[in-house]
Fold this sequence. Notes:
55% helix; 7 helices; single chain; Rossmann fold; alpha/beta
Amino acid sequence: METKIFVDTSAFVALFDKKDKYHQRATDYFMSLQFGAVQLHTSNYIIDETITRIRIKNGHKFALEFGKYFFMSKIFQIHYIDKEIEQDAFEIFKKYSDKKLSFTDSTSFALMKKVNIKKAFTFDTDFKKAGFEISN
């Protein structure tokens, strides 16, 4: 049985940005994955956030490079956030009012619950606080 892993923005940025403080750790973890034994999942919200963060931090050229890599890659299953997940995410967002949780994180948590993903490739500790296992 394949292990499902959700890939978060922080992991994508760390993989792609050689200056990111987690770059080496992210690269080592990514290279250690056995792609027949894992399924990598993400969402359209994460891709939007990743391209935006790379553009702000590294410039348009690097954001385009990430986009080209990601959209040509066949190793990620992209989930599209629909109205049901958005509504679930808003409930999560309301629940964690004491944390600096982004709405994008809330959509990730709602999606992970819906498709039964327990593990996230991320450097964002909010995933752990929400009850998910962090892999990196």
